[in-house]
Amino acid sequence: MLASTSTSSRRSRTRTRRTVARAALGLAALATVTSAAQFEPPNDQVLLGFWFDSAQPYSDTPSAINNNLGFNVPVFQMAQAIPLPPFDWVTGAGGPAPENQIEKSATDAAVFLTVYPVDGFQTVTDDDFIALGKQILDYQVNLNRTVFLRYAPEMQGTWMKYGMQPQAFNQSWHDMYTLVKSVAPETIMVWAPNTPQGYPYGQQGTQYNALSAVDKALLDTNNNGQLDAGDDALAPYYPGDDVVDWIGLSIYYKGIPSDTQNTIQPNGYCANVISGTNPESGDAITPWYGPYCDQKPDKACMFAEAGAAYHVNDAGTATQAALQQAWLKDCVTNSSMLDAFPRIKLYMQFEYEKTETANNGQDDLRDYRLLNVTDVRQELAADLQSLGTRFSWAQSRAPPTSISSPGAPAATNSAGTSIIQAITATTRPRPTTFPSLFGSTSDGTQRAEWAELGIMVAAGVVGAWTVMRTL
Question: Which residues does the Swiss-Prot or TrEMBL record annotate as the active site (predicted)?
Fold first, then answer.
């Protein structure tokens, strides 16, 4: 286990794994020259994915989202911790992400799995990464799904326990990449930092001073002896082109000038943010699209989590419909935006309502959902319809009855192999048997469940008969 090995031993193993992985990738590069990312949608097509909140009282599901939107969403986000906590049979907490909800949608949507090392990188072992790889391989082979893996996102901020640790992040990322890919090589690795707006997020004081000398040097990219807005918000955390497949960004509109009041966003808000201009002040910020999307043709980009916040407790004049329709028109369904930034291939909508801490330190209830307000939902559906085939959707397919299948398509960049084909390929039969607690299971698993039930019933009958004899 990693926790019981020495630091030097760990680094030695990591260097060896990294060398092997890079050598293999180098040979692959000699064999084929790529111009697209792994499973990238073809031509000018893009994908619209959704986060969904399955917790009470929302109980949202992929099926409900598809029904409300009127389209079959091609990518759904789920989250879990690493190390993976055991499933609590009383509370329902812990365990792997609820992939069975995607199965119930009866579509071939891809899995977008976000994994948080919630207690810090030092708690994650090699065995944890191997277990994660096996979980993903099951999704790919037995459930025939494309899988995006977003590991340790928003790594620049201390709102994450693992945040603001560039050296540890890069070490853990390489460990994760090598071990997960060794088990599930078709996994799409997504590196996804937070927006550079507001960087360094107020962390330039005590938090920066508490860092190691190595981390301080890594973060002080302009070499002025301090952490400030002139430092690069992204580069210290980028693990390298050879260990990244897609590049994401967390980008939201939460209000200008106040992040607790409902105001309509300025035109060009998203374009400015990703190009290196703060929409509020006009000051330069670290550009994302140019260095990480336009200049990396073998990578595809995405808004890994995105949305406009409606402040529920603000009695301002801007309605939720007006605020979120402006977001859609500016950042998602704007054909000019899509044309100007063609390397953005996936937009992941954060379909949540949640309480967050505002800049003034107060709690603020924010509703990012697009589908719970009729006007916004209708606007989104109409926009998508007007764009024709620009957005690509998942196809219907029956939930599985057997966990056996020929497996997911090969992860290549050759012509004709794309995420569209990967997530629409299906060879699974229509279900004919009952679902288990974990969704539809194989016939063999169901026979085992019946056998276990029979044993329990028989044991109960024998026990009752024994008790009756003694009365």
Answer: 154, 305
Q: Is residue 194 part of a domain?
A: yes
453 and 313, same structural domain?
A: no
Same domain, 119 and 243: yes
Lowest mean pLDDT among 149-163, 257-271, 287-301, 413-427: 413-427
Three-state secondary structure of 415-460: CCCCHHHHHHCCCCCCCCCCEECCEECCHHHHHHHHHHHHHHHHHH
Residue 82 has pLDDT above 80, yes or no: yes
Query: What confidence score (pLDDT) does residue 46 get?
Result: 96
Cβ atoms of 86 and 94 within 8 Å: the answer is yes
CATH number at residue 63: 3.20.20.80
ω into residue 57 within 30 of 0, thus cis? yes
Number of domains in the chain: 2
One of 186, 305, 351, 379 is an active-site residue; which one?
305
SS3 category, 301 = strand
Average pLDDT over residues 350-372: 95
> pLDDT tens digits for 237-293?
999 999 999 999 999 999 999 999 999 999 999 999 999 999 999 999 999 999 999
Q: Is 305 part of the annotated catalytic residue set?
A: yes
Write out the residue range of the structural domain in which residue 313 sits.
Answer: 2-424
Q: How far apart are CA 471 and CA 468, in angstroms?
A: 5
Q: Which of 154, 186, 351, 379 is catalytic?
A: 154
- DSSP class per residue in 96-145: S--THHHHHTTB-PEEEEEEE-TT-GGG--HHHHHHHHHHHHIIIIIS--
